[in-house]
Specification:
The protein is of the alpha/beta class. Helix content is about 45%, strand content about 15%. It has helices at about 20-35, 40-45, 50-60, 70-85, 95-105, 120-130, 150-160, 175-185, 215-220, and strands spanning about 5-10, 15-20, 90-95, 110-115, 135-140, 170, 190, 205-210. The longest helix has 17 residues, at about 70-85.
């Protein structure tokens, strides 16, 4: 089937931005407030990708605590507040991301974000990094009743972009992105430098890239 691609749905953390250090710092501030020991950076990296509540639950459970629903909700709100207050201290776009996104935008592509990060925090970090003007639709992890790996999550981005799966592709770094893209009917491009927990060779993808600057060529090959 011939595709005419005009829309691109992006994951955020691990795909466009390297945010693990700020998430790690916020998580450890929360643990300190709860009287719990900090976690290391590698562990924090393994917790990224499922949204703030899952990050908090995993960190607290690692320290031997099992919070009830109310305590987990309160801790997650505090984690997000701590993160938003310092969302770009050490977070940076991956190499060539701003330039490549700008080139894609200038070429006529409409760009969207599908992330399990809360929507407000997503808007804030994109604005702080000077990337917010590049995106026509942003759907966060708390925008809908579902989030990745549910394919309804990227499908909602397509709807906001005025796109169909036949005109779009998805770009991400992990198994959730691949699963949700496939379920939504889009080809998936894997960035191999991110926060995947599944071995990369086991993640199905139409293309696999080590450098973001190679994305336009990969998109052209899909069409």
């Amino acid at each position: 089937m011939t595709r005419t691609l005009s829309h691109i749905v992006f994951d955020l953390d691990g795909t466009l931005i390297d945010s693990v250090q700020d998430l790690h710092a916020a998580g450890n501030l929360l643990l300190e407030e709860l009287g719990l020991a900090p976690i290391d950076l590698a562990t924090a990296r393994s917790f990224i990708g499922d949204g703030g509540q899952v990050y908090v639950r995993r960190a607290v459970e690692l320290r031997g605590q099992t919070p009830d629903a109310a305590a987990l909700s309160a801790a997650t709100e505090r984690f997000i507040a701590l993160y938003e207050a310092n969302a770009s201290n050490r977070t940076i776009p991956y190499p060539d991301v701003p330039e490549t996104l700008t080139a894609l935008k200038d070429a006529g592509f409409r760009l969207g974000i599908c992330t399990n990060k809360p929507e407000r925090a997503t808007h804030k970090v994109l604005a702080l990094l000077g990337l917010d003007h590049l995106f026509d639709a942003i759907v966060g992890g708390d925008t809908l009743p579902v989030r990745k790996p549910d394919p309804a999550h990227p499908a909602a981005v397509l709807e906001r972009l005025g796109a169909t799966p036949e005109t779009a592709c998805m770009v991400g770094d992990n198994e959730h992105d691949a699963h949700s893209a496939r379920g939504a009917g889009m080809p998936f491009i894997l960035m191999r430098y991110g926060y995947a927990r599944t071995p990369l060779e086991q993640i199905p993808a139409a293309a696999r890239l080590d450098h973001f600057r190679d994305l336009p060529k990969a998109i052209a090959s899909l069409a």
